[in-house]
Amino acid sequence: MAWVQIRFAVNSEYVEDISDLLVEVGSQSVTFTANDKDEAIFELFPGDIKYWQTSTVVGLFDAATEMQHIVDILKDQDMFQGQFNCKIEQVEDKDWEREWMENFHPIQFGERLWVCPSWLPIPDPEACNVVLDPGLAFGTGTHATTALCMLWLEQMDLTGKTVLDFGCGSGILAIAALKLGAKRAIGIDIDPKAITASQENAERNNVADKIEWYLPEDAPVFETDVILANILAGPLKELKEVICGYGHTGTELALSGILAEQGDDVLNAYKDLANMNPATQQDEWVRLDGAIK
């Protein structure tokens, strides 16, 4: 089954209320962890339930869930006082934060592109190798949505082109584009942890001098020759003008993070902005690609 998760911060006094609300609106599980700036609580007496001053909440949902509806419900809660910030992301096929080093092996995409974990030997030193350690960021190549984008990139001639990775996660797509011959790459993500992971992976792959990473509010005005957006169907539709605004007539476009049953809706959303090809499917997910009008 395909999953997405929503992640946001909440004050400790509201954790039980928010847990009940998330379950009520369809969350399959709710977990709480320490916010980055808070210290963990170690000494608990029997029967005590204590939380950090600010907790990071993660709610897990079926990927077909209309997540904008969930966001709207959360925004309306008095506890957030109109200041609700969250990140919605796909969930890897396995929890690589726990199983990463035991289970991840080099993966080949097409004839010339490999993704290799940083702690294992590279199978083909002559290939285009992306050496990866995603940390806490999404994107290892194991998920169908990322794999669909990697296969699309591998088939392209990127020589001399500028590539945008919108929702860059671990930076895997931007780095792969550079390895495949792109001149310059730009990554944008709303999560500072993704920016950190992407920069570390760029340095690991010796391409940091050809790539720039931005939070959306810090991104400059620019145009690119190739755009990849591996996020989710809802944000793809909502941000279509923003995404296509980074291109020009003829810019090649690939959209991923879309369940098969959502493909037609996303195609319809982009039909006035781009000439789109039929969907390419892997497992429950599809990639839509084409060129901006």
Automatic annotation (TrEMBL):
One BP annotation, GO: methylation
Catalytic activity: L-lysyl-[protein] + 3 S-adenosyl-L-methionine = N(6),N(6),N(6)-trimethyl-L-lysyl-[protein] + 3 S-adenosyl-L-homocysteine + 3 H(+)
Pfam families documented for this protein: PrmA
InterPro entries linked to this entry: Ribosomal_L11_MeTrfase_PrmA, Ribosomal_PrmA_MeTrfase, SAM-dependent_MTases_sf
GO cellular component: cytosol; ribosome
Keywords recorded for this protein, A-Z: Cytoplasm, Methyltransferase, Ribonucleoprotein, Ribosomal protein, S-adenosyl-L-methionine, Transferase
Molecular-function GO terms, alphabetical: protein-lysine N-methyltransferase activity
Protein location: Cytoplasm
Keyword presence, S-adenosyl-L-methionine: yes
Family statement drawn from the similarity comment of this UniProt entry: Belongs to the methyltransferase superfamily. PrmA family.
Function: Methylates ribosomal protein L11.
PANTHER family tied to this protein: ELECTRON TRANSFER FLAVOPROTEIN BETA SUBUNIT LYSINE METHYLTRANSFERASE
Protein name stated in the entry: Ribosomal protein L11 methyltransferase
Species per Swiss-Prot/TrEMBL record: Psychrosphaera saromensis
